[in-house]
Amino acid sequence: MASTTAQARTPREAHAEGDDATDRPAPKGRMLGIDVLRALAILGMVWLHFTLTGWGSPAPPGQPADSSLNWINGLLGTRSREIFFLLAGVTVALLTGGTSVRRGRERVTAWKRVTVRAGMLFVLALVLGELGVWELQILHYYALWLLLLLPLSVLRVRTLLIIAGVLAVACPVFKIAADHAGASWGFLPGMSPGMLPKESVGGFALLIHPGEWLPTLQNVIFGLGNTGQDTLSVLPFLTLGLALGKLDLRAAAVRRRMMVAGAGTAVAALLLSLVSMYPLGAVETVNAYKNPPAAATAAPGSAPSAPPKLPKAPWESLVTMGHPGPADKQFSATEGTFMLGTITALLGGLLTLMDKRLWRRLLRPVAAFGSMALTWYFGHFLWLNYLAPVKAAEGGTAGRSFLSFAVFAVVSLTVSLLWRKWLRRGPLEWLVHQAVTVAVPGRRHRAGRSR
């Protein structure tokens, strides 16, 4: 019957079908837009870990990095990680049912699977700790966040959206209030080395040092220095991602609403910040806080003066952007809201874009890279420390050139494309999948195979 129907079509109908071929939706399965967005997040984090100081070659020791690279580094900052944080929430939503609500044994099974996945990520974090990059990697953070999101996964989308909006304002307000109250938590800037939380033991040695477990947990929740990856800063992104993952992300109307609402939120936050920074003068207050006057030197023979008190983060930071702008991003409500809206719009736009056959072909290497995000996140540390190590000058940091990053990007995109052509999962993705299916056997509900 199928052949008879095909033969009955008129030439005009067949021609029209051919014209629409490039707009034909992607096959059911992985949502490739999520993979592309995840790839952008990982590549952004890799960019920062490469510590780029020059384009063709690194800047000479003692010389500042190229100004344009400095501008890009400031633009990325924590923003690439924030994409990754939001997608963590999307992942938990998809793993726990997506648009469908699981109850009873199905919910227990889904939660067990997420728990095993978190356990595997923690083991991989310990492996990276053995390789000497415990302070840089965030896999043990990610593992805890997956577990934190499980109780929230039973809430409705509207409730989660309200929580995300409240947290976007409440978290920076809490941090500024903590600064004014004299707290000595790791996320607060301007702390002396003695005030910083002690970095815990990394690697598998952590397992046999129970005294280090609480400091490690404290560092994950409150941060270690001004890292921008404390759990308090991440909560709005995790919660919004969980809400978005519960939407029907395959529906065109949902994607359009995400693009419109996300872009509108981002533009409104940016405009509010720009008006507050310049016509209303918030930027001057924040600049004065970031660049306090130098302490006066004591006269010869007189007693040394007491060290000046550290300035407190001004409340104007709440409405000042981090880039462009001088604010610490963790203190800025407009910065966080801007990124929440931007990532939402990006996700909706990329999901729509990847329904087009032309874009699926053009971005296939990027989507393949994103589907192997765990492998490449883990692998880029091996690249930096073993395949292409750089010795730092005495008292300085190891700088690299943009060319070195470009080589990594080309190699990783090519390998990802070839790997995905023959195999379904990346090496570490396969390892985690095997651990999950062995530890929690049973038929898995497929809510949208992109996680």
Write the layout of secondary structure elements.
Layout: H1 2-8, H2 11-19, H3 32-49, E1 52-54, H4 67-76, H5 79-95, H6 104-130, H7 139-152, H8 157-180, H9 213-222, H10 231-245, H11 252-277, H12 282-290, H13 333-353, H14 357-362, H15 364-371, H16 373-387, E2 400-401, H17 402-422, H18 427-439
Parallel strand pairs: 1-2
Description:
The structure is a single chain. By secondary structure, the protein is mainly alpha-helical. It folds into 2 domains: 29-55 and 365-443, no CATH class; 78-291 and 311-355, no CATH class. It is built from 18 helices and 2 strands. A two-stranded parallel ribbon has the order 1-2. Helix 3 runs antiparallel to helix 5 (79-95). The longest helix is centred in the first third of the chain and has 27 residues, at 104-130. It is globular. The two termini are 39 Å apart.
Instruction: Count the DSSP helices.
Output: 18
Uncertain segments? 1-27, 190-197, 295-299
Secondary-structure element pattern, one letter each: HHHEHHHHHHHHHHHHHEHH
How many independent structural domains? 2
Which outline best applies?
A: globular
Give the radius of gyration. 24 Å
Number of strands: 2
First-residue to last-residue Cα separation: 39 Å
Task: Round the mean pLDDT to the nearest integer and report it.
Answer: 84
**Main sheet makeup:** 2 strands, parallel
Spatial strand sequence of the major β-sheet? 1-2
Strand content: under 5%
Share of residues in helices = 55-70%
Helix and strand content put the structural class at mainly alpha
